[in-house]
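Researcher: Next sequence.
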Amino acid sequence: MHATSSTNGVWSKCRATLHSWITHHRIPLAAISSCGAVMVTDGSVNSGLFVCFSAIALIFRQGLRFFFLVTMLCLSCGLLHLYRGYLYQQNTTKISVGSLQTMTVRVINISPQMTNTWQATARIIRADVADLIDEKIYLRGRGPAPLLGQAVTTSGRMSDLIGPRNEGQMDFAAWQRRQQILGQFSCQHWQPESEMNHMLWEATRSLRDAFRDSITVGLENDQPAAKVIRAMVIGEQPANQDPLLLSFRNSGTLHLFSVSGQHVNIVALILWWFLQRVRISRRLSILLLIPAIFVYAWITGASAPAMRAAWMATVFLSAFLFQRRPDIMNALGVVMIAALLVDGNALFLAGVQLSYGVVAAIALGLAVTRKYIQRASLFDDYLPRELYRNWQISASSKWHALLQSLSISTTASIGSAPLTIFHFGMVTPISIIANLALTFFVAALLAIAIVSSTLYMFSPKVAAWSNRANAMVAHGCINISSFFANIPGGHFPLSMRNEKHDVIRIFDLPRGGGACIIHTQNADQLLDTGNENQFRTAVLPCIRAFGYEPDTMIMSHAESAHIGGAALAVEQLPVKQIIASVAESRATTFQQMQHRASQMSVPIFIARAQATIALDQDVKWEILSTADPREKNAMSDERVILYRLHFHGYRILFLNDASQYTIEGWLKTSPDPLCDIIVVGRHSYELPLTENTIALIKPRAIIATHSDFPENEAIPPNWEMQLKQSGVTLFHQGRTGMVTIHHEPDGILQIDGFLNQQKLVLPVPVK
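Model: Next structure:
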């Protein structure tokens, strides 16, 4: 008799379990190998081959026939992705960049309209180049926006897709390329083409508007409850500066503000419960449920996550029609393979990775925890079920559902954590409990919304009563998210790109915007924020990507291009104090910042000449000059504060947009104006630093902002030539993008340009 060990027995059992799982889940392995093939043809050869061959190695043991089918599938997905990429590259060469053009397009997706601008994705209907018909472009315009599905003739200029100019900023151009968008079209004006309107688009638009009205009739549009209902039911997100978003973001439940797979599944469960209560057979219920799911996904905007969930639910429920056992992983595999065949670019989108990754994590988590949940049953294994009372059976069923929900919430949070850290630089462990608590409220909110939309067709007044009841549920969602968001340690930034040494990042923002983040090992500070849009799209993503936590916000002057995002920064960042340039200003953005700081109990201090603000032992701010408080009606560029940063022995002068009069006034009173680096913006009506000023300050490098539009924000070529002759190194932000100043361990200072990789090393200054 051969000797055996517990180790060998456990290993054999694990191998048998793995073999059994693979036998019943061959489709997900085929999907994984197809993903690897797409990665290879996209350029990620090493990682793609590893993924592909790892999956195929497991598939090989399932038989040569299946191995051959998977190999053919991988080739199909890879070659189709390669062919689509080739066509896209060919079409991008056919667009005429910079020239004035006129074309007719249909709006297929439109972003929420901002203050005076709009953005939309459109498909070309008619253009000078016939090969561009049915291709997609990105429209930008001012004033009122066209309607969804509307055919419009527009004139303007085409430009290339613009990538990020700041490190940590989302690569919007890469995202647009993945969407097969050829370029950006700046609309000078547009007019509708009524004869080219499409009946399906008009019906869709009317249905969406009616559904939106039905779920909020009887409620004020601006009240928080109405915003939550619209966000959770139809995915209409509030404005970015809305305080509602903060508690949901910090509690890890912001995904509830967009129609995703979770919403589609909840709606499906609600409809299934109703169909079972009216005694409709299972087969007919499924046949009614599948189109209902697609209708909900379509009228809420047909977002990619919602449509993926609708297709997954269709595959899952179809198993019942064919008398097969449904399986989440197999349904996910089928939908993933279909998505890769239709468009392999979807694999590289963060939303797709999150949605598929979370579903896979939930499926695996349920498979692992199923036995443990069954063991945690309230029933005694040796006592017949007939001896239990109804309330005991009901309690056991609810306990089982609670454990299963907790397992789903936990595995979803764990499965999404790596991608959340990589893409958003934040971890929310409290989301495990918060999602579990909010799921029941979201289900109730969606159920009442369905009832309201049904009642609205017969009596808007009765629907309004229903919506008032739903408003109470919405307030419950707000209170729960706020409670979990305020739990200490429930959320915290966690970046995969943490800085090991002190660093300064000077942002490159368009149209004269300015912002700078100073990071030390003990504290972070933010100088200016750019305008609201620049802060949201460039500054805040960088702060989150690197895990910065600025507790002090410093202002150079009360101008919207520099402090327009201050109110939003107070909400989104752990700001504990604000150093303002002036006490009063007519600027609306300054007043908004004051109001928001007062609401958040953030004190505002007025800058005082000769005062210092310490960040670290070797890093401190020095306020050189302040604005005259009597000149309340002067333009903002005439009320600029000058700062000097003492950074590990180096002196960095921040002139911002100061006028020559302000600079000369400081130079006359300063006993020691010498600085190593100057960071300078542009005054509205004056040229940059004069030759005499540079000679007095004697900088070794100048970092200057640049913007092609408006013209007064551009760096004059003759001034650039003057600096070159003076031996001063210029970091032209029109070419460098973001400029980063690193303090190295050996004491030297290295300056890097983000776009053109320009570098300069400054030796340790002589004291």
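Model: The mean pLDDT is 85. The first helix runs from residue 6 to 24.
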